[in-house]
Amino acid sequence: MNLRFLFLLIFLSQSIPFFSQTLNNQETTSINNENQSNAIQNTYIKILWTDNNNTIQLNENYIKTLTNQQRAALGYIVTFIGSECYWDGNKKNDESNLKCRLLTALNLGYQCSETHISFLKEWFKEDKKVLEDIQDCEKKESSAKIRDQLIELKMATNQNTIKIIYKAIGIDMIHSKNWKWAEESTYSFTKNEIKQTHRENIYGSFQ
């Protein structure tokens, strides 16, 4: 009986450190996996930026891989802020041929065109606020005396959320004014639709 008890004590003294180390390793692995997952979810990919000559550059290779949900989120942003917009040929009487860099790269046609707006309506079909906003789509070329233009835009996507942060500049040549602002917006999506769930001004203001 004493020998059995002694054997049990020896077994437990050797086993406890092993099980403790195993649990610690499992906990560390779980934390590392969680941190890695968060890092992936919060990785922003630059979509648009301006070079030293203030010329817009696009991440065209990445843009070609975008899902419809990502295209819809970006297409909504560029409904209201320019990305080098010029008339495609001579300006038409109905102003239906305003071509913008990012919108074209997204394969959404001309600014405020049926292609552009109907695509947004299809994907934001249950988002009343966005549907109201796109009714005010404005056609404004980049040479207009009062205009806004994107200077940087980046996007992060995880399993069912898209986050976009952009910086923009506004110019008023009539009153010799300019301004800058930045904004962050978040979108939830399914395989059939997308909704804007959060919108926050980071600095400056949209005028």
Output the keywords:
six-stranded antiparallel sheet; 6 helices; 36% helix; Nuclear Transport Factor 2, Chain: A; 2 domains; alpha+beta; 207 residues
What would your notes on this structure say?
With 207 residues, the protein is α+β, with helices and mostly antiparallel strands. It folds into 2 domains: 1-37; 42-204, Nuclear Transport Factor 2, Chain: A (Roll). It has helices at 2-41, 60-63, 68-77, 101-105, 114-123, 128-133, and strands at residues 45-50, 56-58, 85-87, 98-100, 146-157, 161-172, 177-189, 194-204. It has a 6-stranded antiparallel beta sheet with strand order 2-1-5-6-7-8. A two-stranded antiparallel ribbon has the order 3-4. Helix 3 (68-77) crosses helix 5 (114-123). The N and C termini lie far apart (87 Å).
**From the alpha-carbon coordinates, what is the Rg to the nearest angstrom?**
26 Å
Poorly predicted regions: 5-12, 15-20, 27-40
Q: Strand order within the widest sheet?
A: 2-1-5-6-7-8
* Helix content range: 25-40%
How far apart lie the N and C ends? Answer: 87 Å
Brief summary:
The protein has 207 residues and is of the alpha+beta class.
What order do the helices and strands come in, and which of them pair?
Blueprint lengths: L1 H40 L3 E6 L5 E3 L1 H4 L4 H10 L7 E3 L10 E3 H5 L8 H10 L4 H6 L12 E12 L3 E12 L4 E13 L4 E11 L3
Antiparallel strand pairs: 1-2, 1-5, 3-4, 5-6, 6-7, 7-8
Helix pairs in contact: 3-5
